[in-house]
Amino acid sequence: MTPYYSKITGWGMYVPENVVTNHDLEKMMDTSDEWIVTRTGIRERRIVADGETTVSMSVEASRQALEKAGIGPEDLDLIILATSTPDYLVPPASSMVQDQLGAQCGAFTLVAGCSGFVYGLATAAQFVQTGAYKHVLVIGAEVISAGIDWEDRNTAVLFGDGAGAVIVSRSTQPGGLLSMKLGSDGSGWDALIVPALGTKHYPSHEHIANKDHKLKMKGRPVFKFATRVMSDATMDVVAQAGLTMDDIDALIPHQANQRIIDLALRRLNFPAEKTIVNLDRYGNTSAASVPLALVEALEDGRLKEHDKVVMIAFGAGLTYAAVVWEFQPFEVTPDEENEAILVTNWPVDSAFQRKMQEMRVAAWKMKVQARTKASEASMAIMLPLYSFRKGLKKRMQNGNGKEEEKKS
Ligand code: UT7
Known about the structure:
The protein has 408 residues and is an alpha/beta fold. It has one domain: Peroxisomal Thiolase, Chain A, domain 1. Helix content is 41%, strand content 19%. It has helices at residues 22-26, 33-40, 54-69, 93-101, 116-129, 153-156, 205-210, 219-240, 258-268, 279-282, 289-299, 351-407, and strands spanning 5-14, 19-21, 44-46, 78-82, 106-110, 135-142, 162-171, 176-184, 192-193, 216-217, 250-253, 308-315, 319-326. The strands form four sheets. Strands 1-7-6-4-5 form a five-stranded mixed beta sheet, sandwiched between helices. α3 (54-69) crosses α4 (93-101) and α8 packs parallel to α9 (258-268). The longest helix has 57 residues, at 351-407. It is globular, with a radius of gyration of 23 Å. The structure holds oxa(dethia)-CoA. Oxa(dethia)-CoA (UT7) binds next to α2, α6 and α8.
């Protein structure tokens, strides 16, 4: 039993002013706006200017979050900065953020790829729900553009820079983190990798010539992993909270690819209108993607008090993380933190109601599992067919070329 609930009391975001559109990229590499939009949904992204870094953007987003929560940096008990692109390998970027904010608390950097912010949110909730801490600052921030090979069209068109931050506070109002699932499948460690920027391989001249200090990605396996965990992990956390997708007011997915999101929505039978998407404007900002979508939706009123929201992310590792979060009334009452109560996290009271709810959740879970199996089976048939057709077309084109060569 935990004596407190977690509550998001403040939020903020920062994106660089510099906009790079698909048309700008067309001028830099062999790609097209049409390819990028149809394959990913991305239209433009923000890229840092000189002087903008993971730390500077984190500080900016955090200041807004502190102001919104009505607290000062001295009130923070902990800072968790999720990033894979720190200003330096050493020291941890989180300590630089702590210093620049003027906070006097502990701070650590959390590296869990694009899932980092959701990992951080789940971690922060543990500190406040146990009563140990009052206010934890959670940030997701990245300067992915610095680690991109701008000649590699497989990665360069996908990513962008930015930072989002929230304050997770201790509260006696029911809600906050209702359930969580943190996952890792390290067998896919090399699907998203910077091969030579760690202690195994510091970049040598040869590495630099091969661009091994830049991000490499095997898009297809990541795509497959993402579509599976998006629906599976969402279903797991929703069921764990004693809910079905009908009870969920909004879904905030990792903003990697519209096709991945669409596939997950189909499996979960969840409406697109209730899904928060901003990848068309920011691209994939890795650990910043969920908080940027969250903050925008809170700011423009798409997320309201008492809404139950799923946040789900996946990324390098390979990792994934999902939570169900219920927003309490945003107004903070002065005595909110003084009286502790016991949390059950269970929305219904009587044993009968509870049994009925369990049956409803089990039936819904079976339906989603069946839909997922059917869609995976159709992918297993269609993908080889598609590749075969593509290969055939290529062979025919080559054949025609040779015929024509012979004729001439
Ligand atoms: O946060 C996690 C980060 N990673 C992800 O979420 C990535 C997940 N994967 C994906 O989103 C997709 O796999 C991609 C968007 C990366 C690629 O889409 P795809 O439908 O899997 O394309 P593909 O890799 O199979 O490539 C299809 C074709 C290839 O040409 P050929 O071999 O068929 O002639 C590529 O060379 O598209 C080509 N291609 C491009 N063409 C124009 C790849 N990138 C580009 C590009 N512009 N930028």
